[in-house]
Specification:
Layout (H helix, E strand, L loop, with lengths): L1 E5 L6 H10 L4 E4 L10 H4 L9 E4 L2 E4 L1 H11 L12 H25 L11 H23 L12 H12 L11 H11 L2 H10 L7
Helix pairs in contact: 1-3, 1-6, 1-8, 4-5, 4-6, 6-7
This protein binds glutathione.
Length: about 210
């Protein structure tokens, strides 16, 4: 049995979209951030860092979005969310999954939680500003690498495109949102048009503008 601990629009959106693409049976379990449930004793048993998401797959309890995504891609190869093992395409897939998780996704912590990065609260707006500038440069690089290709891996759709879509979405409130880069906007539109993505968005109750 698969269960995904989620909060609408959080990093759980990536595995949620993947589960819909796969067509797997799964249960969605809300972690109520309004009640700080991600820091409850019960949830900390699943993820000692108190962060969302967690995937439960039978006896396996997995945290870290990218690890969950790689596990789902491996467990359901028929869904084609990752290229075949040992191929150059698979290596490019790893490159993007790891780049997305340890570069823009990690940087977003400073944008969304600037107070965690300061000892003096008055410095938080400056941290947020600097973070948005670093994110701009990161998205410039990704946009240049994507170019006018359909997907990050060229003609082949993969979980990395869902990941990038989620990160583009998170920046919708930034002074220069990632969607203002035409290549990223076009990719996000293509991802948004996928029925599985629509299902995940509807199930989480996400409202326009989506990115
Ligand atoms: N590296 C972690 C980061 C997860 C993360 O930062 N999740 C956010 C939501 S998108 C969260 O749980 N925020 C609430 C908190 O930090 O208390 C992962 O990819 O799973």
């Amino acid at each position: 049995m698969l269960a995904l601990y989620y909060y609408p629009g959080n990093a759980s959106l990536l595995p949620h979209m993947m589960l819909r693409e796969i067509g797997a049976e799964f249960e969605l379990r809300l972690v109520d951030r309004g009640q700080n449930a991600q820091k409850s004793a019960e949830y900390l048993k699943l993820n000692p860092s108190g962060r969302i998401p967690v995937l439960v797959d039978g006896d396996l309890v997995l945290f870290e979005t990218a690890a969950i995504a790689l596990h789902l891609a491996d467990k359901f190869p028929q869904a084609g969310l990752a290229p075949a093992l040992g191929t150059s395409e698979r290596a490019e897939f790893y490159k993007w999954m790891i780049h997305l998780t340890n570069t823009p996704q990690a940087e977003y912590r400073a944008w969304f939680y600037p107070h965690e990065h300061v000892s003096d609260e008055a410095a938080a707006p400056a941290v947020k500003q600097a973070s948005s500038e670093r994110l701009n440069r990161m998205f410039d690089v990704i946009s240049e690498q994507l170019g006018d290709r359909t997907w990050l891996l060229g003609d082949r759709f993969s979980a990395a495109d869902l990941f990038l879509f989620m990160l583009i979405r998170w920046g919708r409130g930034m002074p220069r949102p990632p969607r203002s880069l035409p290549n990223l906007n076009a990719l996000a539109e293509r991802v948004l048009a996928r029925p599985a993505v629509q299902q995940a968005i509807d199930a989480e109750g996400l409202k326009a503008p989506i990115f």
